[in-house]
Amino acid sequence: MSSSKDAAPAPPFARHAMAYVLAGGRGSRLMELTDRRAKPAVYFGGKSRIIDFALSNALNSGIRRIAVATQYKAHSLIRHLQRGWNFFRPERNESFDILPASQRVSETMWYLGTADAVYQNIDIIESYAPQYHGHPGGRPCLQDDYEKMLQQHVESGADVTVGCLEASLEEAKGFGVMHVDTENLILSFLEKPKNPPSMPGKPEVRCAAWASMSSTRNS
Questions:
Q1: C-alpha angle 191-140-118 in degrees, rounded to nearest 5
Q2: Does residue 197 have a cis bond before it (omega within 30 degrees)?
Q3: Closest by alpha carbon to 172, among 128, 115, 210?
Q4: How far apart are CA 35 and CA 18, in angstroms?
Q5: pLDDT tens digits along 197-217
Q6: Phi and psi torsions of 185, nearest 5°
Q7: Verdict on whether the full-model pTM lies above 0.70
Q8: pLDDT value at position 203?
Q9: How far apart are CA 171 and CA 212, in angstroms?
Q10: Three-state DSSP class for residue 187
Q11: Beta-bridge partner residues of 134
C-alpha cells in the first residue's frame, strides 16, 4: 500500500483506496495450463479464475475502484473480467478498468515488469485521485483483508507497506524476502536469495523470514 502526503481521511480507509491488480505474467511453471491463457485466468474450482481471489479480496475489503493490468495471452482473462466483473457503477463512485499493455510510453515497449506496469498507467491512476493505492498480484490464492492493512499503514505513518508471510528460511529461498530491522522497517528486498535474512529480535522464530505475499514460490 502507498499513499499521498495529504491528511488521512476517516476510516474505513478502503473507500479512499484503489486496487491496481497486476495480472500480466505468464506463469510458466503451470506449463500447459498457461499455454493459451495467463496464469490469473486459469480456472479454479469450476467457473472461478485465480484472479478472482485478488478481486474478491479488494471488493470484500470495501475497495470500489479497481484496475487490472494485463499482457500475456490476455483474451481469456479480459473476457472473464468483462463478463464477471461488470457491475461497478460510476454513479456510486465505483470504477473497474482493464489496462492491457498498449505501448503508452514507446511503440516498442510493453510492460517490462510490475513497477513499469504501474508507471505506464500512472496518469490513469492519478485521474481517480485515490488517497491510497494497493498493488496486489493477480496470481496468489490468498484471503486478505486490505482494510486491516490500510489501518496499519495509516497508523504507522509509512510511505509504503508490504504484505508479508512468515516462511522458514528454506521456504524463503523461493520468495522475494524482506530484510528488515527490529522495527520492521525494510532495509532491502532480496529476490529468491540463497541465504535469506531471518527476522531480527525474535529468537523464537529466528529460523523464519518475511516473504512477500505477492511473490511466487519455486516449483
A1: 65
A2: no
A3: 210
A4: 31
A5: 888 866 555 568 888 876 544
A6: -80, 130
A7: yes
A8: 54
A9: 12
A10: strand
A11: 19
Give alpha helix (H) positions in 8-142. 51-60, 75-84, 114-119, 122-127
d(CA 119, CA 144): 25
pLDDT in tens, 95-129: 999 998 877 777 777 788 778 888 888 999 999 99
Where would I find the beta strands (DSSP E) of 55-182? 65-70, 95-100, 132-134, 164-168, 176-180
CA distance 164 to 186: 11
Residues 118, 98, 84, 54, Cα dihedral to 10°: 0
pLDDT of residue 217: 44
Distance of alpha carbon 101 from alpha carbon 99, whole angstroms: 7
Question: In this structure, what C-alpha cell is assigned to residue 188?
Answer: 532491502
Q: Would you say 145 and 17 are in contact if contact means Cβ atoms under 8 Å apart?
A: no
Is the CB of residue 175 less than 8 Å from the CB of residue 192?
Answer: yes
